[in-house]
Amino acid sequence: MPQFVKGTVTFVFAIWMMLRINVTFALCIFALMPVTCLITTRFGKEILPVLQEVRQQFSRLNTVVQENVSGHRVVKAFAREDFEINKFDKVNEDYRKANIKTARMWEKFLPPLDFMCNMNLFIILIVGGLFVSKGSITVGELVIFHGLAQRFNIPLR
What is this structure's pTM? Predict the structure, then answer.
């Protein structure tokens, strides 16, 4: 929740500041926002169940470890070390598979998101350069736009 609030405040503040500095330039930068939001929304819907699976598998792994640590004397007394090792190996393997699945999801969606963020930077440099050459904005305002665009893109991602 704190991360969501921080991201939302940062996003809104960046938009507000961009609009205060130069509305036309800000709208040029916002042109890619719908595509980025579409990618992010689609990614969020697909990755949420995968991330929940990772958390569940991690919880199972922690449970097995905690049970073995707290009950190590009982395990030794009944010579159940091999059974507990095999149980841990299975739960650990499930956790590893869930993490690999998550990594593949990130692998699928990060390149388009990074591309959109880089396109945003490209627009800032090209359009901003034109605005600076025409005197619509100063070099300092262009630098501010670049910094705000970075703050703007982070919550979108």
Answer: 0.66
Confidence of residue 32 (pLDDT cuts 50, 70, 90): confident
Q: Across all residues in the chain, what is the average pLDDT?
A: 86
Contacts 24+ apart (CB under 8 A), 79-88: 88/61, 88/64
Give the CA dihedral 55, 60, 66, 69, nearest 10 degrees.
-130
* Relative orientation angle of helices 139-156 and 81-134, to the nearest 10 degrees: 150
Question: Contact at 8 Å (CB) between 132 and 138?
Answer: yes
Let me know: does 99 contact 105? Beta carbons within 8 Å.
no
pLDDT at 157 over 70: no
Angstrom CA distances, 32 to 85, 88, 102, 111, 118, stand at 52, 47, 26, 15, 11
**Residue type present at position 1:** M
How far apart are alpha carbons 8 and 51 in whole angstroms? 21
